[in-house]
Amino acid sequence: LGSSAVYVPCPLRVEPGFLNMSFDEGGPEFSTEKELVDRYQTDPTNGLTSARAEKKLEEDGKNELYKPPRPSLLTLFIAQLCGFIIILLIIAALASILVNATGSKKDDALSYTTGMAIFVIVLLNAGIAAYTENQAGGALEALAKMSQPSIRVIRDGKETAVDTTTVVQGDIVLLETGDVVPADLRLIEATDVKVAEMCLTGEPDDVSKNAKVKAKSHNKDGPEKLTPENMCFSSCSCTSGKGKGIVVATGMNTRIGEIASHLAGSGTQKKRLGCLPDTSANQTPLQVNVEKLGGKIGVGAIVVCIVVFVIGLILDTRDPDNTDGPSWLYMILIAVTLAVAAIPEGIPLCVTISLSLGSSSMVKEHVLVRKLAAVETLGSASVICSDKTGTLTEGKMTMVHMWAGGVKYDVSGKGFDPEVGGITRSQGNTDANAEVAVKTTLLSGLLCCNTTLSKVRDPDTREEKWEPKGNSSEAPIVVAAKKVGWGTDECAKDYKRIIEVPFSSSRKMMLTAMDVSGRDTLYPGGPKLAPGTNYVAVCKGAPNYIIDICETFIDESGNVGPLTASDKANIMKIVDDYSSQALRVLAIAINPMQSFPFDPQDEDVSTETKFQHCRKELQLVGLVASIDPERDGVKESVQEARGASIRVVMITGDYLKTAVAIAKNITILNDDEGEDAACDCAKLRPGGEYLSEPEIDALTMQTRCFARAKPEDKMEIVHSFQRQGYVCAMTGDGVNDAPALNAADIGVAMGIQGTEVAKGASKMILTDDNFCSIVHAVERGRVIYAGIQKFVAFIMSVHIAEVLQIFVCVVANIPVMRTPLQILFLILVTDLPPSIALGMEPGDKSVLKARPRPKSEPIMLGWMWMSSIVNGAILTLVIIIVYLICLVHFCDGKIFQDDILALDGFEEKLANARTVAFISLVLSENIRAYISRSFDKHCWVNFLGNKDMQKAILAAQFALLVATLLPFFSDKILGLRGIGIGIWGWAVSVVGPVGTLILCELYKIVTQYQVHQYQEMLAREAELKDEEFKEETRKYLAGKKASGDGIKAHDVQITIHEGKQNGISKSDSHGGRAKSGRTSWTKSLCCPFVGSTRMA
User: Of 88, 149, 660, nearest to 341 (Cα)?
Assistant: First the structure.
């Protein structure tokens, strides 16, 4: 969830139907009204008694979602202190304080500075991490808000409004237009009820509901419906009609509750140390790698400290400032110094700062990061599973074609803005806004709509935008009509509606009748009306139903002509052509009438009687074809993703034909690809049971378009990709997407049209709802991760150098060249700014042409370790040389500790030598920062390309001057004498950076060879792993087929295809795979690089 409020185990195996409230043949949608009444002990007329309702409320609890308590900020803060590195630092700080408290300087407050400084670092790191974790929002709170405060129910025989949280099983709920369904209902009465289920299914069309009971059948001829027709589900809104239903599930037992339960996992929070929250289940690859790196370094630090401590005891090494003190006490201080030098306490802070700055920069790319470590995960994504509606498409039904008077027309524009686009002839592309056939068709369609279109002001941006109110399927007609001058308000005044027969699933059409008395034409310049015409009835609905009952049609000139059987067949071919393009087609017809054969004001006249009389002698006016169009730029973004070796997969609840058409429009599928690359999700669960994991993997391996997907299907698909070694990103905007958003390696929600539930379950939010922003985020994520690798390698080389320098001093019996406090100052003040600047290094232009990095790839590859060790050794060598020169110069030619301690005034002489070594090290590390901008290119290439690096070096130099020249702070606290070393000391300090520059740049020749070799090896291994995975799948499928089990039994054909796969060539498609093990240490050293982190 991006929040410690809910923990989700991953991978999570979801059983089929986890959102299906059916209980076999006895489920509420298959039960009769009497069976439901008996089961829930209620009365459809009088409802529950108040006493019965109160008792049920006590037994079942409130009708609300369970929300696990979120850890407090203090709890999260304490949890951060349990990390291995942090514990080591705390131990080092305590050891420093205790040793000084028992030593000769126990009364000197400055002697405790080192321990206190370490504690400050620890608290700072923990505070930042806890604050970031606490900022995450919870999806469950958003789910709980998706309801209205009260609803009308029948209790004690009376209609009454009750709080939705007090609704119980057995309550009789009364629904009407505008109500939000308070719980899962089984309808027992329904009059033209339509419900918006987009929050559950992701599909924009309102769903017709009825009270009919259908027999359950396992052998369905057509596509499976996503929801039963006689069920209304909690949090969905009623868009039209009236209904009465029995509450069959409340709270966590509803469909929306099932989603919440899967967001919350098992419901039992994992604990650390018995009481602290364990957030390990939500860790991204970066967090895991940082933790593993810290653990390895921590173990190494302990080993080094023990070795040096033992050597010091053997050599009887004593404190220069207290020669009478015991050797073991001084060696404890040296061990603390080594621990501080070895433990990279700056890495967590640098990672946090780098990701924070990176997430801030991603806002410019319209990406809002909810969890900092997720920045890098999207950069490693090798599969993007995207919802169709509202993500790849506009989420707004738009008219794109129409047929009228025997002529085909195109409709341009997207969305609901009628001021954009117009009507043109398909042949010739001439303006047709004023043509009679066009205006007549759109006016007729508008007169048969209840949807209105008006401008509203956005409360956030204060900008005005066009917005329809009403049925989503009518919005395209209303918008297109406005384009040719027909407004909803004006038409409602000019054409008074007398009769309305709502759409029903049995009639397959809607009918209205308007008063046109006194008119000679339908509108000025429009089709002529017969003398005496007082009314015009308009029918709008399914083309096959309406065309079948039409007797005439209106041609392009507005004249009425006969509609023959041949004409009808030709028109149906046009309907089929539109349907094959995944367009939703409606037919529109009119019936001019002199009078009604009934009194329209007579309430005793049934709706069916009105319909049957008004639909006679219909004149076909035209056809309108609409679609939810793809977003601008999506096609190009899909192609860019393919170029980055990222597979884009569309998962939608729409029908297969519609899904394939959209997928081809945006190039997810190629025009010549057939059903092998697309499938109905029913193939995943033939007979209601999911296929085995290898069988599902065989399907997902070759499929890039999944249709009729349920929420649990999306999770199965995501887990299948994860089993194959892909880093899976999932985009979505509805409640139905929340479980998959949470299960994916990274969930990306839509910011504008996305529900709060989806946003709460995601780790990233696209503020412009544009799929194109994902590709920009991928690029930025790769650049940020590459920067993190650079500064981690830089910091590690610095720590290695620190450890080696102290180790050499102890073993060689040379005075240790710096104190723990000086090391902390070096690492956190003079080294930290350049490290952060490395994390902000501009990316290589070719970063999107590289493969996604493997999921199991550590931050520090083997070749990076080798580079850090060599560079650390180089840094140690030059600084030791500088230090020895200074010891000879300032300590009268003495370099060993016993000889120096015998000198008069050795404290100042030793401090001078240490100061020159300190200055030389700072300068050398600043040079190393420039060298570290690229692993394989020389530092003078685009030397000033990173403006932040110039600022960081200036900050580091200022800190150096403060540390060496500021009175009291430099000499009393840090023990440095910048003035005492004179010009000679400052001049000698330059030897270090010059030597570092020459030797480190020479070593890059080796690194360049390693980069090239590693890329070639990675490509070879990726192809080999892919072949191994295919072969394993083939063997499994062959075994299942031979045994007559599995696929054959379910009559599902799955084949493994060779060659080009998923729209990506074989050589480019597997860089993100990490199916089997890690690359060996030897190979990583010899050919050590991955394409996605080409650092330039």
Answer: 88
- Better pLDDT: 253 or 355: 253
pLDDT beyond 70 at 460? no
CA 564/CA 555 separation, integer angstroms = 13
Pairing of strands 237-249, 184-196: antiparallel
Mean pLDDT to the nearest integer, 38-48: 91
For residue 193, what pLDDT is reported? 85
Q: Regarding beta strands 237-249 and 172-176, do their DSSP bridges make them parallel or antiparallel, or are they unpaired?
A: antiparallel
Q: Does residue 875 surpass a pLDDT of 90?
A: yes
Cα angle: 850, vertex 853, 859; to 5 degrees: 125
Tokens for 242? 């009236």
Three-state secondary structure call for residue 768:
coil
The label of the residue with tokens 């006590």 reads 58
* 407-410-415-420 Cα dihedral, nearest 10 degrees: -110
Q: Hey, is 507 helix, strand or coil?
A: coil
Provide the pLDDT for residue 64: 82
CA gap 1014, 1021 in Å, rounded: 10
Contact at 8 Å (CB) between 234 and 183?
Answer: yes
d(CA 672, CA 1053): 20
pLDDT for residue 142: 46
**Burial track 399-412 (b if 16+ CB lie within 10 A, e otherwise):** bbbbbbbbbbbbbe
Q: DSSP letter string over 657-701? A: HHHHHHHHHTTSS-TT--GGGEEEGGGGSGGGSPPPHHHHHHHHH
pLDDT at 739: 78
Amino acid, single-letter form, for residue 585: V
Highest mean pLDDT pick, 749-753, 960-964, 1053-1057, 1059-1063: 960-964
More confident residue, 8 or 65: 65
Which H or E run contains 1054?
Answer: none
Which residue, among 374, 278, 339, 274, has the nearest Cα to 83 in the 3D structure? 278
pLDDT of residue 737: 75
As given in the structure block, the two tokens for residue 1074 are 């990490």
Please list, residue by residue across 819-828, b when 16 or more beta carbons sit within 10 angstroms of its beta carbon and e when fewer do: bbbbbbbbbb
Of the candidates 399, 376, 414, which has an alpha carbon nearest to the alpha carbon of residue 859? Answer: 376
HSE (side-chain half, CA atoms, 13 Å) at 955: 17
Residue with tokens 């190393």: 928
The answer to whether 413 touches 422, Cβ cutoff 8 Å, is: yes
Q: What is the mean pLDDT of the chain?
A: 79
Tokens of 373: 């470590």
Candidate from 34-38, 303-307, 1002-1006 with smallest mean pLDDT: 303-307
Check residue 309 and give its pLDDT.
Answer: 82
258: its two tokens: 């099932």
User: Measuring CA to CA, how many Å separate 219 from each of 682, 905, 1046?
Assistant: 12, 98, 18
Helices (H), ranges, 747-859 = 756-761, 772-811, 820-825, 832-839
**Residue-by-residue DSSP string for 785-799:** HHHHHHHHHHHHHHH
Please, which pLDDT band fits residue 276 given cuts at 50, 70 and 90? low
Residues contacting residue 208 through CB under 8 Å, at least 6 positions apart: 192, 193, 194, 229, 503, 504, 505
Q: Find, among 804, 732, 693, 968, the residue nearest to 199 by Cα.
A: 732
Between CA 445 and CA 621 the distance in angstroms is 9
Work out the pLDDT band at 992, boundaries 50, 70, 90. Answer: very high
Give the sign of the dihedral formed by CA 118, CA 120, CA 126, CA 132.
negative
Residue 251 has what DSSP assignment? Answer: G
Q: What are phi and psi of 319, to 5 degrees?
A: -70, 125
Please, what sign has the CA dihedral across residues 316, 322, 324, 328?
Answer: negative
- What pLDDT is attached to residue 1057? 47
**How far is it, in rounded angstroms, from Cα 745 to Cα 749?**
13
Cis omega (within 30 of 0) for bond into 842:
no
